[in-house]
Amino acid sequence: MKREFFTAVMVAFVQLFQQCFSALASSSTSSSESNSASDKRIVFIRHGCTFANEYLAQPGTGWGDPTFQDVPDLRDSPLSPLGVRQATQLRQKVKDGNFPVALENIDLVVVSPLSRTLQTFELGVWPEMEKRKLNPPVVALPYARERLYMISDMGLTTDELKVKFPWVDFDSQFDKSTSKEWWYTSENGWEDYDEWRPHGNGQKYLVPGEPDNEFEARMFDLVKWLGARPEKNIILVCHWGVLEFLTGDDFDNCEVRAINYEKLESVKKNPLNASSV
Fold it and tell me: Which pLDDT score, from 0 to 100, does residue 272 have?
């Protein structure tokens, strides 16, 4: 009888120990995941001034002006001479150590596939990385492209981009369906398209704009993608619209800010709780 009682007590003790160990392990894993997200920093860089930016700054061709007309030559608008100077000034800041995270601690570089962001990184940060023999992965990510407002937000194919920027990974985040057209395209063209941009007063656009729901869904995909990455310090070179959505703030051309991932406005308002990925 005593032996049976002793055996029952030991079984109960072992079960209680297993339950406690399982709860402790689960708590440890949850804490580790939380710490991983809280430790992640995103270094945001907006691209330099482009020819499209300068076009929009002219009287009569500003965004929303009745005389606004989209221009075919502005497709995938590159940096203007002013933008090149801004990117060069960024390089000097990086060289002087006026950068929010030491280059040696950068684990990953993510760049929008539009030429203006690629040029900005190429002129502003990449030379100093090469000089110091730093080789973090440099990945082009379609999620990070600008919202398609006008034709300047349509890019080049990955084959064309590989020729211009051979040091960038244009494969891992693309597939056959996106290597040719990774920017927004309306499935039926102008048919059934609901215009959300300023219109009705003479404005002329060359391509349908990316609707709110499409853009917002893509931004949350970007947030989840960043949150799921194991790297702690990530540079993201992107655009005004993307930055405003992610951070809630305006960024000037070539402005740089480092923000903790969990403090991003887009993480806070993500209905899918992006910080849990």
Answer: 54
Task: Name the CA radius of gyration of the chain, rounded.
Answer: 24
Series of mean pLDDT values for 10-residue runs along the chain (277 residues)? 45 45 42 58 98 96 94 98 98 96 97 98 97 97 98 97 97 89 93 94 96 96 96 98 96 98 80 47
The full DSSP string for 176-201 is TTTSS--S---TTTTTT----SS-SS
Task: Quote the Cα angle for 42-114-40, to 5°.
Answer: 10
**Structural contact between residues 276 and 182, judged by C-beta atoms closer than 8 angstroms:** no
Enumerate the β-bridge partners of residue 69: 204
Site of tokens 């990955």: 158
DSSP symbol at 153: G
256 bridge partner residues = 45
How far apart, in whole angstroms, are the C-alpha atoms of residue 29 and residue 120?
39
Contact (CB, 8 A) for 137 and 187: no
pLDDT score for 16 = 43
Write the CB contacts of 143 (distance below 8 Å, at least 6 apart in sequence): 173, 218, 219, 221, 222, 225
Alpha helices (H) in the chain, listed in sequence order:
2-39, 51-56, 81-95, 115-124, 126-131, 158-164, 212-228, 240-247, 265-269
Q: In sequence order, what are the residues at sequence separation of 6 or more whose Cβ sits closer than 8 angstroms to the Cβ of residue 222?
A: 141, 143, 144, 242, 246
pLDDT of 176? 81
CA atoms of 229 and 108, how far apart (whole Å): 9
Contact 224, 274 (CB under 8 A): yes
Structure-block tokens of residue 137: 């992965």
Instruction: Return the pLDDT at 7.
Output: 47
Q: Can you give the pTM of this predicted structure?
A: 0.84
